[in-house]
Specification:
Elements (H helix, E strand, L loop, with lengths): L2 H15 L3 H16 L1 H5 L2 E4 L10 H8 L3 E8 L2 E7 L5 E3 L5 E3 L4 E2 L6 E3 L4 E2 L5 E2 L5 H8 L4 E5 L21 E4 L1
Parallel strand pairs: 1-2, 1-7, 7-10, 10-11
Antiparallel strand pairs: 2-3, 3-6, 4-5, 8-9
């Protein structure tokens, strides 16, 4: 199976799963597991993505993090990820990728992040990740050593042999799955 075919197949399955009760239940379990992790509790400055409808909903995690953490979200600028600090009063606009991005926000240096929550389409238990094909997170992680976690619903977990990897692919430290 190629990355492209696995990506298409998984995205179709995620789209069909999007508004189900099962997805909401998985999201709740993943939220509870993440916020109870010592790594999350001890982090002061986290990077986390604003989720699309087919992804694990990150908004409850962001709201929890606002209580005692600096929260930054990725924005694509000149074909690379830049992190922008958000607060409960941040205003957003929709990007060309369909992602809500902060309108006016301070840039945060990636090296100051204590934890980075990384999106993806499919994952293996060992930390291999299939992204959306732009290579943004692979380039970022190749240049910065930070603790990383990805949230995976059951249908996003694939066997090691099904996810082709290339030398530039960066592994995630921990795949949090239900």
């Amino acid at each position: 199976m190629t990355k492209k075919s696995l990506r298409q197949e998984t995205l179709q399955a995620l789209a069909a799963y999007c508004n189900t009760l099962e997805k909401k239940e998985e999201e709740t379990l993943l939220y509870e597991r993440l916020v109870s992790l010592p790594l999350f509790k001890q982090a002061h400055n986290i990077g986390i993505y604003r989720s699309l409808s087919h992804e694990v909903n990150t908004w409850p995690i962001i709201q929890q993090a606002f209580l005692d953490k600096q929260v930054s979200v990725p924005v694509v600028t000149n074909k690379r990820l830049v992190f922008k600090e958000i607060t409960p009063t941040t205003r957003y606009s929709e990007s060309s990728f369909g992602i809500l991005e902060p309108v006016e926000a301070r840039t945060v240096e990636v090296s100051t992040l204590d934890l980075l929550i990384v999106p993806g389409v499919a994952f293996t238990n060992s930390g291999s990740r299939l992204g959306y094909g732009g290579g943004y997170y692979d380039r970022l992680l190749a240049n910065h050593s930070l603790p990383t976690i990805s949230l995976a619903m059951a249908l996003q977990l694939v066997a090691e042999e099904l996810l082709p990897t290339e030398p530039h692919d960066q592994k995630i430290n921990q795949i949090l799955a239900v």
